[in-house]
Design goal:
By secondary structure, the protein is of the alpha+beta class. The chain has five helices and four strands.
């Protein structure tokens, strides 16, 4: 594990896309998406944890704190915006107990952490999150109809 430095942003972005291919609704990322990501007011690499093997990203937890949302909800919450482990490192070595997670968010200032998960994810992410203490709060069903 090591911090994300500016020279790591592009390799991290590419690893995100590689991991995202397993998610429903995947569409290839474009350069505009990368620029928007870098310019987001929620872009805070200090909250990320990146697992590396040599110079290759093996997995990552991208945490964020949305102060505006916290004010609207009257809470202090961090959000696990994206977590992934790339295929060559699945299942995650060391299982859920060592999976990089929310404990690296400034705990003294947060009351909770939250995430969303695709329950049909082929890497069994739902079970991993349950193993490290997350519980279901809301369930959403998404319907799609292909138009011809």
């Amino acid at each position: 594990m090591r911090p994300a430095l500016p020279e790591h942003y592009r390799p991290i972005w590419k690893a995100r896309e590689e991991a995202w291919q397993d998610h429903w609704g995947y569409a290839p990322f474009v350069e505009e998406d990368y620029r928007r990501w870098l310019d987001s007011p929620l872009f805070d690499p200090a909250l990320w944890k990146v697992a590396w093997e040599g110079d290759r990203v093996a997995g990552m937890v991208l945490n964020r704190i949305d102060e505006a949302e916290n004010a609207r909800q009257r809470r202090r919450a961090a959000t696990r915006r994206m977590s992934f482990v790339l295929r060559p490192w699945r299942p995650w070595r060391g299982a859920g107990a060592t999976y990089p997670e929310h404990r690296d968010v400034p705990r003294s200032s947060m009351d909770e952490t939250a995430l969303g998960v695709d329950t049909q994810n082929p890497s069994c992410a739902l079970g991993l999150y349950q193993d490290i203490g997350y519980g279901e709060v809301h369930r959403h069903t998404i319907y799609r109809k292909h138009m011809e």
